[in-house]
């Protein structure tokens, strides 16, 4: 059955891919984005676009139908509108508290007033901080090491309270390293901070070399190990989350492949996929970089019926490479 969804931050990387999947499933989609980090070109064709801020969501959620007992304007909100640069959050924490926490509080209030009682939230593995166990489960301690991770954890707490007090049906999806592309939707970050697109920039000639931050970690090749998930697998989890959301419950699910790839494995995979040499520069470790971050997605498997089907690193890189080349010639 067709539904109508509001996708906040739908001009960004993950939000745009989720919006595209919703459209392909036959739903009506409205993207709300202020384009501070998103791109108008990222909004999928067929989606209605509103250039605006989540603090003003009440304008579009329309409080009157829901509050009067009528049909709410939207069946659910999928919320991606957040600042997400870990390094920036350390030097500008107020920016992250203001937007990620303050903006979401305003959004939750607007949803409550409008009678929109279902939410899927884009959370993050940064809520866990230094892992206590590998793979990480949802019951592991949350001790974020950056204002970014702390702001996302604060929102998760807000959502839990909203569900308990006001019957919100909510699912938070904690991502690990999202990568790849889906058709014309891919990573357009500026500045870019994610490993795979950075290595691809070397292959494109946009960078002379890729920096490897630390080669003395307690891992097989000395470099950090991360769990990479294809953005299309991630999008499919969001659609499943809409069906699994239960009134009064805040379900939290990790999303990842359950397998880790080292920095050097990623670089070597890019060499094979692109056919380009990728010069490396070994640099000092970055503060706060855990040696291994790998997710247990068992809760998502059990509760959402989700399994990643694009777990092959070469396939993830190939999709990202195709998007990077198309973007360069567009």
Which structural class is indicated by helix and strand composition?
A: alpha/beta
Poorly predicted regions are none
CA-atom Rg in angstroms: 19 Å
What is the overall number of helices? 11
Q: Name the overall outline.
A: globular
Q: Which features would summarize this protein structure in a list?
A:
330 residues; alpha/beta; seven-stranded parallel sheet; three-stranded mixed sheet; 39% helix; 18% strand
Task: Write up this protein.
By secondary structure, this protein is of the alpha/beta class. Helices cover 39% and strands 18% of the residues. Strand 1 (4-8), helix 1 and strand 2 form a beta-alpha-beta unit. Strands 3-2-1-4-5-6-11 form a 7-stranded parallel beta sheet, sandwiched between helices. Strands 12-9-14 form a 3-stranded mixed beta sheet. It has a two-stranded parallel ribbon with strand order 7-10. It has 11 helices and 14 strands. Helix 5 (93-114) runs parallel beside helix 6, helix 7 (195-203) runs parallel beside helix 9 and helix 7 crosses helix 11. The protein starts with a strand and ends with a helix. It is globular and about 55 Å long.
